[in-house]
Amino acid sequence: MSMQRIPLLVVPPHLASVLSRPLRGAGALLARLLPGLRYDLQESDLTVSAEEHAALALLNSMVLFLLSGALFVVLGIVQGKPPAAALQGSWYALLIFFLVLAALLRYPRVLAGKKAELIDKHLIFALKDLLLQIGAGVTLYAALVNVANAGYGAASREFEKVARAVSTGTPTDKALERMALASTSEFLRRTTWQLIATLKAGASLQGALRSLIDDLTLDQRDRIQAYARELNLWSLLYLLFAVAVPTIGATLLVILSSFAGVGVTKGVFTLFLALSFVVQLILIGFVKTRRPLVIVS
């Protein structure tokens, strides 16, 4: 399992695999409660079972619970609070436990979605290469091998799996069917099922590939145009929090501290500016995640 790809895993991988063994029973229960976890792990290429991943999630959540609980207790003691009051921080640690557990259990789905975006990013160019080679008289298997070695990122890796399966004796349509069932990319599934139908019908692969390329190109352009329209709103919100809110808010704080008798301290003013800055960073990160990973020729 590529544990370094998953955040919040505080226990080293070699140690986590040993310490999580007593939690396999609880992990199996979680896996039964979350039947989609098994498919998310398969689609994200994480080579671990659902029970093992759930056990690792439980282990790391418990470690973070203990660390945060100890930190809250120490902070309470340092501030002079009685032990009973200091132990109230354990409720915050319990909240951290559930949040981290939920994040770790959901992260394979996030990875599967990112993998689908990376496949879609280069899929059009992979299909154009496939069309060019088939049009030049290259067999479908040889064209798949060439595309797999052509460096089209995640798309090439998917075609490599098909080429490897065909080389071991699996029929081409069956290998393509496996890829369609295992892939999280809607476009790759659509492409694969179209190729399978064309192969079974004995129709022209070139015509099917041209139609698929045209459809994918149009869809990606639509996604870019939709993102451009959406970007206008997020740009307005960013300017609001970057310019209007700090300026007007700072003016209101000064007026309140001068005339309304409200005790606006330097710390409150600094906190207000810091919150405005944090909101700006959140907006920038959100806009970045909304950007479609497409390359249109």
Description:
By secondary structure, the chain is mainly α. It has 3 domains: 3-114; 118-210, no CATH class; 218-290. It is built from 12 helices and no strands. It has helices at residues 13-19, 24-33, 36-43, 50-78, 83-86, 89-135, 140-148, 154-167, 172-182, 186-201, 205-260, 266-290.
Task: Summarize the entry for a quick read.
Helices cover 79% and strands 0% of the residues. Helix 6 packs across helix 8.
Keywords:
297 residues, mainly alpha, flat
Number of domains: 3
Rg from alpha-carbon coordinates: 27 Å
The computed structural class is mainly alpha
Spans where pLDDT lies below 50 across 5 or more residues: none
Span between termini: 36 Å
Q: What portion of the residues fall into strands of 2 or more residues?
A: under 5%
Return the string of H and E elements: HHHHHHHHHHHH
Q: Helix share of residues? A: over 70%
Instruction: Specify the number of helices.
Output: 12
Give the strand tally. 0
Mean pLDDT: 79
Q: Characterize the largest beta sheet: strand count, sense, and whether it forms a barrel.
A: none
**Mass-distribution shape:** flat
